[in-house]
Amino acid sequence: MTPFQPLKDYQVLITRGKGQADGLKASIEENGGTPLLVPLLEFTLPDRLEEVRQCLAAIHTYDWIILTSQNGVDYFFQLLGKRPRTLPKIAVIGSKTEVALKRYGYEADFVPSEFVAEGFVSEFITILEPGTRVLLAKGNLARSVIAEAINEGGASCDEVIIYRTVLPASSEQELVHLIKNHAIDIITFTSSSTVNHFLQIMESHELGTYIDRIVIACIGPIAAKTAVKHGLSVDVCPDVYTTDAMVADIIHFIMKRNTKGGTLQ
């Protein structure tokens, strides 16, 4: 019996960085789709490395560390180096970040029920006492929502940039070629950074009209808000902010549209 393949004949663009696309790629393939991997994110070490290392050398002076992503976990431990690994309590945003932390032998002391900055901080500040010292280790493009809320709540939060997010030079021409040849049916965005880098390329090559009929899927409300702010029409945004949930909602969207007699092709 032929398995149900709701994404058969659909070309799905994956914009997330190398090394993080495997799960989404597999999910698309399992449902019959063709994944197109064009990473719009690349991660590098931060500027002012010596300052960052000095900050991490004082890690013992903090009560909590916040790690906001898998990348944050990896770069944190890379930059921490061989220092003694008696760490403060660790808070993470999201189940994938929690899993990444476990690979280094640590358990998260706090995981929010909602995997966005606003949801995280609204829960996290309720367990902080005035004067509690928190270190937020993040990427250069991360927002300041968490640190601002913690400081306003009476605790103290310092921020340290432990990695940079950049646009891979090799991806631009590949994306332009796919767009111009109408080779993409669905675009998946897994962060605001992927949205911004995508639009940067579209604007520089004047390709705005080429994407009118492409289905836009965002993993969560922050990426969706960025897309809408810049004029994109978001068709899919799951309630659970995971790639599996995004693919499930893409399938639901396609089936619903096809039932109404429309087509994505």
UniProtKB/TrEMBL annotation:
EC number: 4.2.1.75
UniProt keyword Lyase present: yes
Reactions catalysed: hydroxymethylbilane = uroporphyrinogen III + H2O
Pathway connected to this protein: Porphyrin-containing compound metabolism; protoporphyrin-IX biosynthesis; coproporphyrinogen-III from 5-aminolevulinate: step 3/4
Domain Tetrapyrrole biosynthesis uroporphyrinogen III synthase residue range list: 24-248
Transmembrane segments: none
GO biological process: protoporphyrinogen IX biosynthetic process; uroporphyrinogen III biosynthetic process
Pfam families xrefs: HEM4
Keywords: Lyase, Porphyrin biosynthesis
Enzyme class: lyase
InterPro entries, A to Z: 4pyrrol_syn_uPrphyn_synt_sf (IPR036108), 4pyrrol_synth_uPrphyn_synth (IPR003754), UROS/Hem4 (IPR039793)
Single GO MF descriptor: uroporphyrinogen-III synthase activity
Protein task: Catalyzes cyclization of the linear tetrapyrrole, hydroxymethylbilane, to the macrocyclic uroporphyrinogen III.
Family: Belongs to the uroporphyrinogen-III synthase family.
Protein name as annotated: Uroporphyrinogen-III synthase
Organism of this sequence: Peribacillus simplex
